[in-house]
Structures are given as C-alpha cells and as structure tokens.
Amino acid sequence: MANEKVDVVIVGAGASGSAFAATLAKAGKKVVLLDSGPDWKNEDLISSEMWGRRIRPAGPPFLHEGKNPFGYVGQAGWGVGGAALHYFANFPRYLPTDFKMKSEHNKGLDWPISYEDVAPYYDKVADEVGVSGDAKSEEIWRPAGKPYPMPPMKVFKAGQIWKKAADSVGMRLVPAAVGMNSVEYKGREACIYDGWCSSGCPTGALANPLVTYLAEARAAKAEVRPMSTVTRVLTNAEGTRAIGVEYFDGKRERQVQEASIVILAAWTGQNPRILLNSATDKHPNGLANKSGLVGKYIMTHHIANAWAMMDEDVQPHMGTVGAQYMSYDRYPKTTNPNAFGSSYIVAGTSFKMHDYAGSRGDLFGPELAAHMKKAAKGLIRMNMFGEEKPNAENRVELVTQKDEFGMPLAKIVHSYDEDAVALWNANIDAGAKVAKATGAKETWSPRGGMPTSHLHGGTIMGKDGGSSVVDSYGQTHDISNLWIAGPGVFPTEGASNPTYTIFAVARRGADQLVSKWGSVAG
Amino acid sequence: MGCLRHYPLGRGGRGDSGLSEARCDARGNMRVIRGLLIAIAALGVIVGGYAWRSSFAPIDRPQASSFPVENVKAGAVLAAIGNCATCHTRDGGAAYAGGRPIVTPFGTIHATNITPDPSTGIGGWSEPAFIRAVREGVSRDGRHLYPAFPYDHMAKMAESDIKNVYAFLMTRRAQVSASPANELAFPFNIRSLVAGWKLFFLDRGGFTQDASKTAEWNRGAYLVEGLAHCGSCHTPRNVLGAEDKSRAYAGADVQGWTAPALGATSVAAVPWTGERLAEYLGKGRSPQHGVAAGPMADVIGNLAQVPDSDIKAMATYVASLAGAATKERQERGARAIARAGGEGAVTRPAAAAAPGASVYAGACAGCHGEAGRQPLDPALNLALSTTVRAASPNNLVRVVLGGIGRTDNQPGPHMPGFANALTDKQIGDLLEYVRANFTDRPVFAGLDVAIRKARQ
Predict the structure, then answer these.
(1) Any CB–CB contact under 8 A between B346 and chain A?
(2) How far is CA B369 from CA A56, A116, A419, B27, B415, in A?
(3) Which of B355, B370, B421 comes nearest A318 by C-beta?
(4) pLDDT value of residue B39
(5) ipTM over 0.90
(6) Which of A47, A289, A493, B368 lies in disulfide reach of A196, CB 3.0 to 4.6 Å?
(7) pLDDT value at position B204?
C-alpha cells in the first residue's frame, strides 16, 4: 500500500513534534505525524496510578552503560502526546547564562543563539498553551518579558511550609510557573488540584499536547498515524536529500512515507538511533553525521531531594505534581565554590501512595508501613534539579542486537563528571538546610545512587557542520530538508525542566521552516 | 420538649453547625410550640404534682471490684450498641466524660459526664437511680432530663441490661469534668416542662416480644427499638420534637446529614436484605449500597465491638421494616446493577457538553471507575449508591467536601475530601453529572444551597 507523498512527515507526536505540526499545518502544509505508540485521547487518561502506568512506559528499549547509567523515570513517553502526556508541566525557562557556558566559563559549549532569541517564543508559548505564574516575580533572576496569561496556582499547606522555611534561610521562592490552568483558559477548564498530573490530566487543565498543539494541528488537517515505528530516514541516490521515512505499522508491515521535509521529533535517545541506522554508502556513519557528533553530548539532570515529615496534616495528596514554588537562587553556575553548574529548585508537590513508599526506599515491612501512615498526612518535599556539562563521552551508539523490526538496538553510555557529583552533593546539603528550617522533627535527604532524569543532547545545535549536527532551528547541517526537534538539539541542558524550552525552540524552528519553505522543501 | 431530639454527633457532625443546620420541622412553629408546652406544663401541674420526682440519696462510689467481670464485659458491648460514648465524649476528651455540645433549635445542651466521678459524674448514683434515669429520664437528684438523651428508646431495655451498663460505667476511670451549663431559651430551660412531654411521648411499657416472629427478629427489634435507638435519627419528628411513629424510619435530617429512610420508602437502588445490612453494620460498607459516613460512621465504629449475632439480629429486624421487595423495586435494582456493570455506558462526554464529566474523570474515576473501565479494587460504584440517589444532595456534598474515614489507624473505606481543591462550581457541575450519569433520578434540587451550607 503506497502512502501519498506529503509536505512534512514528523517522527514522534510528543512536545516538539506537535509544536512543529501545529505551525506547519496552520501554514497550509500537509502534515503526517508518525508515532510508535497508541493514539491516546484525553478520554483515555484517568487519575490513577494503575491506569496511569499505561501511558508511562519509557519509550523504545535501550541498553545502559557508564558510571551513572541513565534510568527511565518518566521523562520518556510512548504514544501520541509523548512524555508530555504525563509530564509535571513545570515551566521554568533557561536563563541567559545557559546559552553562554563556554564564553562565560570556558567550560562545555555555547548555544549558537542567545536568550534574547528564544525569549519571544517563551512569551508566545505561554499564550498558546497557557502558563500560570507570576512573571514579574521571576525578574529578580532574568530579563523582563510578558506577564503569564494566568495568575499563579493555588498554594497548599506544603507550599506554605516551604515558603516560610525558605524565607527563614534567605532562599527566595516565587510562585512556580506551570503549564496548567489556574483559571479557565481557551475553553479548557481550571485545575481541580487532585494531584494526579503524572498519570495524565483528563480534564484538559494541564497543557499536554493533546489539548494544545496537537489539537491545533489536527484542526488544521494534520494526520496522526499511531502504532507506526520509524526505523530509517530514506535519502535519494545522491545522498543529498531526505525523501521520506521507512516505518512499520500496527500490523508490523513495512511502509514508506515520502515527504518534502522530514522532521525527527522522537525521544532524545531515539533520534540518533534512527540517524545512525539510516546509514547509506553516501553516509556511511549515519545521516547528518559528517561531524561525527550524532549521539554525542547526551546530558541529564540530577535531582537532590529534601524530605520532611510534618506533624500536622498537610493533605499531601492535594495540589499538583509540579511545584507550588520555585527558585533560581542557585542557578548561577558558580554558586558553589567546589562545583559547577546550574540548579533549579521546586517545592511543594502532591504525592500518591507510591510516593509515600518511595520517599524512604531503605524501609521495608512494618517500618515502611509506619512510615507511609505518617507520610500520608505529613510528607513534604523540596527538590533541586542540577546540571551536568556537555561531555562527548556521554553518548548513544548502536549495538549488534536487533529489535523486532530488525533495527539495531542502541546503548546510552552515561557518567556524571566531578562537577556534577559535587553540585549534587552541594544541593543535598542546601536542601537539607531548608528542610530543617521547616521545624519538622524528621528530615532526610537520601544519597543513594545519583539519579538521572530529563534527557538532552545527542543531536546538538551549533554554528557549523564541523562542531554540531543542526543549526539553531533544527535544520541539519548536512541535509537541508532533514530537521530535528526536541531537547536533543540543546548543547547545554541548564537545570530547568526542559519542556517550556522544547516548545519555544520548536516553535522558533517551525516558524523558520515556514518562512523559508520554498528554499528548503525544494 | 419542642424539637429537642437526639443528635448523634459524628466526626462529620462536628456539633457546631449552628441552629440553622439542625433542621426541625418545628422551627417555624416556635410560637405554637411554646403555647403547647405551657399548656402541657399546666396540665402536668393540674394532674397533681406530676412533674415532681424524688431524689435518690448519693452513695459512696462503689468499688470497681464489686462488679463481676462478666457484667462489666456485657455492659461494654451494650454501651457500644447504645453509642453512649459518641454523645458523652467531647472532641479530644476522655471517653464518657461528657461536655459535647448538642445543638438543637432551642439551644445547646451539653452531654453529661457519666464516668464514676462523685462530684461531676455519676459516682454517687446508686443502681436504682441509674435505672430510673435510663427508663424515665430523671436524674438522681430528681430533675427531668431532656430527651436529647433518648430514654424514649432506652425505656425498652431489660433491667438486667441496664444493670450491666451501670456496672460498665461505674468501672471506668473517674474523670473530673463538669459539663458547661445548658444554653436554652425560655421556656425550654424549665425542666419540669419535660414531664408534660413525657406524658405524651414516653412509652413506659418496655419491650414486648412478637411471638409470630423468630427469636433473632425479636432480639433485633429489642435492640433497634431500644438501646440502639435507630429511630432517633432515622424517624422524622413531629412539631413537638418527638418521633412521628406513623412515619417510623422514613428518614430525617440530622446535623446537615440525612439519615436515610430504612423502610419501604428507602431510595436504595438495590433492595436491602438482612445479609447486606449485616455486612454494612459490621464493616461500614455494602458494595451495593454505600459506605457509612458522618454520624453513621461513629455508629459503625461502635458496632465493631458487638458480636456478629447481635449485628445480624439488628440487620434482620431492620430489613423486615421494608417488607418483601416489590416487583417494581426488584426491577429498579436490576436496572441499577446493569448500569453499574456498564450497560448503556457511553464514553466520557466532552467537557463542553458536561463540565462535571471532566471533574469526575480527574477527581473520582480513578477509584470509582467510569464507562468501560473499572479499577482493580474499585470504590463504590455510584450507580448503586443510595446517597447519589437521595432526594437531598446533603450527604453527597458533605462526603465530597470532607471525605470519609480520615481516622488514623482505622481500617476500612477511605476517601479524601476535596474541600480545598474544588470550587463550589466544580462540585456543582460534578454532582449534576454524577446524578445524571449514574441514576435515573431527577436533578438535585437546592444543590448550590447545599454546597454553600456545607462549606460553613
């Protein structure tokens, strides 16, 4: 069965793919999104850990190596909506320093663009998907911008406790910016604060792609083709242009979708895997890989948790899984004398049963039961996301084993460097100090294995084809009609939860693609 | 005494909800009542010092060891069936030490200390004084007790049972705790008026066995009509605040909660059976009817100490109140069960069509399930809930706001309250959706008012 050639085929219907799809479809382009998982609808989402698990398998299988192997937590997705179907919708942004790590600190890399290039898209995205927060209060840390379209979210007891404790130790907390509706917005309802965001928000109050960019794309006639697993980008005989993608449909039959533009917007680990698997005699090291950097500079955030057990009933199940308060007080990359990298702080999140258990991974049996009983009333948490420097040794590469479609599996090799380890430890100490200031009799900050979370890099952007895979819009340096979207294009990862920046960078790239369509699409 | 009634004050009741909360048919008829009361009092005086009762001389507090252990044990079970501790314990206070405010339309009555402290409790009460109090509503010193104490039911108790309760109470730890003075308006503060009330409404006949019924039924009737005083909440009151026997167990409002009808007028989707009722009274839940909440949750808590045989007996008697289920009621039950099983279920409607549907999906469906999707260990299926089918939305609103079973270390059903999370509009939308989606009952009347009131 031949598929009709379209203007754009987008691989992956998650955050970045849907932002590209909405922009292009509204510009009149014929868009097909291929996603390897089911066509989730808002009606499939349900506030339950059991049901929520269905939408949370962590994407394609990878092998893991390194001192700190990447662990799936929830920052990958499976199916239409991608990881953004069950994300926490914390919407901090990257700060100016993130774009200039190399020039400011002579470490890591610079972005080919600055904060000022992305900032207008932060404002656009806020209006488009709906962000609640107090932009003014953030301007103690960043350049001024537009106010958010909605006021901050409701604050619950946990948030009040952290605010008071942070005040007492001189840490500035402001209302968290979140991709959620504090009031009705664009026909979507206000949040009901039942704290199940990570199982998928069924009410439409949380800005997942289904109710934002994907809905816009569909309204503009974009087609979403679920259960379609892309294995290769196909190129012409000369190797100069992408002509489409090869994929396997729900019946495991091989299909080809031709398109004038191919956009890889799959998971951060999967885009390099597809590029490396698309090697031809013209591109023996994989597509868009003349630099040899496809798969290189994989980065993840580490997380330092500070827990406290309050005596009072704080109704920890209520609120949102994102945060009530946030702080960039530890964002400057040299905040800690013996460490390097940014840290982003959030405080006051809702918990469910598995969180009560997970908050003390060292307990079992009656001790765990006693802990969970207390936790169901008094558990609160502050956490600090921390940055690691880009390091080419942290990488995705193909291995000899193959998956069910005959596509080679890939491994992710990841180790934190000394700076990251030092930053993580400093963050644990800083968090513990605030936790003690809550007055809780019981506080703890686990130092087990160093966690991994949001994944970035692997197809980084840069000034030229020698030092990077794509330009700042996502266009590959090697093949002009092959584009890449998502956090894989970030050359540094900052410490902020990435989705706001994923949306902003993708919307910027998509606008660029529309404006220079004639010269790119050919 | 007017609309004085027994107000079981559950955890959900909280007892401070004010006069407007304690609904009473007599509220608007205060003048008529006052007139009637004065007439009754006058009658009492005419009848010849009827109101005057003698005093029992105080005794030295009996030694705890003077009561046989088996009597004390039996008394403990009886006190649980009678829910004595619920009213005679203030929030956070020692059991039976009294002080709980019982709010009525006529003022506030403070439950008395029934621990054996000689000065503030019943330590100086002899056994005959205690028996008279339980059966006739007269204090040791001869004062009439307000019928907030349900002696209109207790009068049916066998003397041996009253003696066992006495043995139980007199062996509790004595608590020095004086209850505050009652705050009643004239003329309700005149205790002798109660004598007139008793003339009309206190049946001193004791319990009579019905030889045509089983021993189990008779045991149940003895407990339900007597000590357990179920009618205090579940039977509507007349203008004088006495139970309207012509409408026994037809349901009534108590502290903003609705005690549902237990008889043939029950709105339950599936007819109750003795087995189901026994399960409900024993565990506080019946998958085909509901979960105990509000004042009834306290009753269930007390019944946990009661032998299964007595629970089964009470269940048998209560189930008999409705008689055999009619064909119409059986069909109603079958329809509800089919609906609960997903028959006629439609996919979740769009938020625009039913704004409550998405609130349900977000806040409720994870435990209560929805069309075509049931959790592994589901909470009550709302198609079967008596509360969702009730005429008044009061109970439903209160459960949504306050949740169920937040007591520490108590097993059993648990539901979080959503008072801090949902706006009044979201709750209104939600309950309209729930009513329409899960029942064939008409839309709730007065939903907005019920939400506002419950918020206070």
Answers:
(1) no
(2) 20, 48, 48, 42, 14
(3) B421
(4) 67
(5) no
(6) A47
(7) 82
